[in-house]
Design goal:
This protein has helices at about 1-10, 120; strands at about 30, 40-45, 50, 55-60, 65, 75-85, 90-95, 110-115, 125-130, 135-140, 150-155, 160-165, 170-175, 185-190, 195-205. By secondary structure, it is mainly beta. Strands 1, 3, 4, 6, 11, 12, 13 and 15 form an eight-stranded antiparallel beta sheet that branches. It has a seven-stranded antiparallel beta sheet with strand order 2-5-14-7-8-9-10. A hairpin with a 2-residue loop joins strand 11 (about 150-155) and strand 12. The longest helix is centred in the first third of the chain and has 10 residues, at about 1-10. The N and C termini lie far apart (about 35 Å).
């Protein structure tokens, strides 16, 4: 049976190994008021740790911290975040496979990648799997201020995924073939090199 399941996974675009439960109608939240990451999170190799009630990461090099819960098809995700690096470079992944990570300098995600202050604090964007791809959508210019705490919000309704920072638009993408279903149903915090701090995650079905 295990061999059969493995072959089925290999035949799909992606397969989450954890057998993760779905997020229910009451949603999911995490305030990181504890000492360790705990069983809700799957660390693919980054230096994620909880410090003073915040989730902190630096130098993860595209090795995400995946939430072990499946996202609703239409969803609102919000969280507090600050960067303590001049480069800004705040990054999360939405609708990925729950397990992918970089194994070299090059990394193609299984998700939408939402970026605030990327490329040395010059670009805000939503990318469909390849953050360097020509099909990424770039939003209005707004650099990340070092040490400032922002409230970010990401929503998907139908074929549109949008992101805001403190209720101001960051970027929005209309995808005629939206990432959904098995292999595209997880959320992750991610990072390249910046010193990032996350808190008060809230995920709500829409």
């Amino acid at each position: 049976m295990r061999r059969l399941l493995l072959s089925l996974c290999l035949g799909l675009a992606a397969c989450t190994p954890q057998g993760d439960p779905a997020i229910g109608p009451d949603g999911f939240s995490d305030d990181f008021e504890r000492e360790t990451l705990g069983d809700h999170w799957h660390n693919t190799g980054g230096r994620y740790q909880i410090r003073d009630g915040w989730l902190n990461v630096r130098g993860a090099r595209n090795r995400p911290l995946w939430l072990r819960r499946r996202l609703p098809r239409d969803v609102r995700i919000s969280f507090d975040v600050r960067s303590e690096s001049p480069a800004g470079d705040i990054k999360v992944e939405v609708f990925g496979d729950g397990s992918s990570r970089a194994t070299s300098e090059s990394y193609t995600a299984t998700s939408y990648v939402v970026i605030f202050g990327g490329w040395n604090n010059t670009i805000n964007a939503i990318a469909r799997m390849n953050e360097h791809g020509d099909d990424r959508v770039v939003g209005p210019r707004r650099p990340v201020e070092i040490g400032r705490t922002y409230r970010m919000r990401i929503e998907r309704r139908g074929n549109r995924i949008s992101a805001w920072v403190d209720d101001e638009p960051l970027a929005s993408m209309d995808d005629p073939e939206p990432l959904a279903g098995r292999g595209h149903d997880h959320f992750a915090f991610n990072d390249w090199d910046a010193d990032l701090w996350f808190d008060n995650l809230r995920i709500e079905p829409l």
